[in-house]
Write a structure and sequence with these properties.
By secondary structure, this protein is α/β, with parallel strands linked by helices. The protein has two domains: 335 residues, P-loop containing nucleotide triphosphate hydrolases (Rossmann fold); 177 residues, P-loop containing nucleotide triphosphate hydrolases (Rossmann fold), CATH 3.40.50.300. The protein has 23 helices and 20 strands. The relative contact order is 0.11.
Length: 571
């Protein structure tokens, strides 16, 4: 393992409390990015040769399952159980001073635990409904960008002085490597404009100290495009839906932000920005499809921190856009416009993914979340996976219920769609009567099922996220008046529309919903004459969906039981 000389941080422009330096335990910014990984180590990291997952037993993250993801490389302090206070992390004095002014009560227990990971530049995947992480992400982002800028300014000064004295040596030039192949360093991905607004507004408040003149370029345009537009869903909608879908919920946006010495510049060209804030769809329109020559992605080549906010909502939009975006980060640029003598050696070697910090938050635990995190989390510092212990939701059911569980054998996740379809068409569909709602989580499964039913002349109507309002109304009316036997509905339709489907006397969950509350919601909104009959089709690859609804113990029993059929009766 090679270490290069640490670049000093020039924070002379900011007031620096004397006790700040004495309290700082380690400069995680320098310790993480100045390391030059040996080629054999980098190769092992790239293929995950020494990667391991270990349950972490500590007082961190109460009521959560915590997994320590280790790469086998121990360079700087990644012992998260050795808790540090906020003052013991190396912050730009101006930023931390302002943070304490805004939050005089300090961090709560959950925030303290979070910052042990975030502040150490470790990866994090967290499943929890909390939103207490937002101020920490703004703090971490500003601190990272300003430290990067100050390092560059300090090294500029060093090189200029050495050049004037005629004492510029190869060693001095080599020690001044402090940049990537492109300027942007932080990528913040979020599903809606209103969440982007909160993140950016937090940074603005954090950057300018009390009484200081706020210079924010294009601020009025930002307020107009990202601020609250007054949108409010109909009052008949459920409170959680009204809260989520109120305000500026547009899902196609992107904005570049440059942090100047005394100003924040919004709407900067991506190549000149320090921070990129976007939705997956908004950025997909820029980077294009995989293999396209017209798409632009060079500005993503040297991203050092990726933050994904509310991944569960993105799952309901288009998960493939997020996957493509994260996989494109730290790509090899087509054109290099940076002074190559200032680029870090590990960046030149295209090892950016081994240094990049990836942080993902989701309110719901689902398989695709883990796949995204583990396939793109290559950070040599390792990381943590934190899953809030699920609570069973059966007590939320208000209707008398006969719940059937139908398990089909599946040895590979690749085959589960085919096997699920085969099980449904052979064992479930022939017995379904009038008033049955078939809930389909995946749109691709929905299309396959719809095409099959059309071919077999089944009596059904359909509700999906792309349907026009007129067709939705007609389908609901035909189902309610029993002109059609079945109604097939996608999860994304329910997520975006949240209509109450009248006339439901039985429900088939072709696959359990990603959002566990949809399970109880659909059951409680049904209108059977007696006990509601509900059928769930599942395989061992639905473990997270089962846990989210029925709890960990019952989910394991359903998966591991010798019996493939179970029935649960509740009054």
């Amino acid at each position: 393992m090679k270490r290069v000389k640490k670049s000093s941080i020039n924070d002379s422009e900011n007031p620096s409390p004397k006790k700040q330096k004495s309290e700082v335990k380690s400069d995680f910014f320098n310790d993480h990015f100045i390391v030059e990984l040996d080629d054999p180590v980098a190769e092992q990291l790239s293929v995950g040769a020494n990667f391991s997952k270990t349950p972490l037993k500590s007082d961190l993250f109460e009521e959560s399952a915590v997994t320590l993801n280790s790469t086998g490389v121990n360079i700087h302090d990644t012992n998260v159980t050795e808790k540090l206070s906020l003052d013991e992390f190396p912050h730009v004095p101006k930023v931390i001073q302002r943070f304490k002014e805004i939050y005089p009560d300090g961090l709560n227990k959950e925030q303290e635990d979070l910052y042990q990971v975030i502040g150490r530049y470790m990866d994090l995947c967290m499943v929890n409904k909390t939103k207490s992480y937002m101020p920490l992400l703004s703090l971490h982002t500003l601190n990272h960008v300003i430290k990067t800028r100050n390092t560059i300014l300090k090294n500029n000064d060093t090189l200029e002085k050495a050049s004037k004295k005629g004492a510029l040596t190869d060693e001095i030039i080599e020690s001044a490597r402090d940049q990537g192949l492109s300027r942007p360093k932080v990528l913040f991905v979020t599903p809606m404009r209103k969440f982007a607004y909160t993140f950016i507004q937090n940074m603005i408040e954090l950057y300018f100290v009390e009484g200081e003149k706020k210079t924010i370029m294009n601020h009025s345009r930002f307020e107009e495009e990202f601020g609250d537009n007054g949108h409010i869903p109909h009052e008949r909608k459920k409170p959680d839906f009204r809260e989520l879908m109120s305000g500026n919920i547009d899902d196609c946006f992107r904005i570049g932000i440059q942090i100047g010495k005394k100003a924040i510049k919004l709407y900067q060209r991506f190549a000149e920005a320090d921070i990129l804030v976007c939705s997956p769809l908004g950025m997909r329109m820029v980077i294009g499809e995989e293999g396209e020559t017209e798409g632009e992605s060079d500005f993503l080549s040297s991203i050092e921190v990726v933050m994904v906010d509310r991944a569960n909502i993105i799952m309901m939009q288009n998960w493939e856009h997020l996957m493509h975006l994260v996989e494109t980060v730290n790509c090899v640029p087509k054109k290099i416009e940076t002074d190559i003598s200032r680029v870090r050696q590990w960046s030149i070697k295209n090892l950016g993914k081994l240094y990049r910090q990836t942080i993902i938050f989701s309110e719901i635990n689902f398989t695709e979340l883990h796949s995204l995190f583990y396939s793109n989390s290559k950070n040599y510092a390792g990381g943590l996976t934190v899953i809030k212990n699920p609570k069973e939701l059966l007590d939320d059911i208000e209707k008398p219920l006969l719940q059937e569980f139908h398990r089909f054998d599946c040895q590979s996740a690749v085959n589960q769609s085919d096997l699920r379809f085969d099980y449904f068409t052979r064992n479930i569909l022939p017995s379904l009567g009038h008033g049955t709602l078939v809930f389909v989580s995946s749109y691709f499964d929905f299309v396959r099922l719809r095409n099959y039913m059309k071919k077999e002349n089944e009596s059904f109507v359909q509700l999906h996220e792309y349907a026009k309002l007129k067709k939705i109304s007609r389908a609901r009316d035909m189902f309610y008046h029993k002109k059609k036997k079945l109604i097939i509905m996608t999860e994304r339709f329910h997520f975006f529309k949240r209509f109450t489907i009248k006339g439901v006397s039985s429900i088939v969950f072709y696959q359990l919903p990603t959002n566990p509350h949809f399970f109880t919601e659909l059951i409680n909104e049904s209108s059977p004459e007696g006990r509601l009959e509900s059928k769930v089709i599942f395989s061992r690859f639905d473990i997270f969906r089962l846990q989210n609804i029925f709890g960990s113990a019952q989910a394991k029993e359903l998966i591991k039981s010798d019996k493939k059929f179970h029935a649960l009766v509740s009054e």
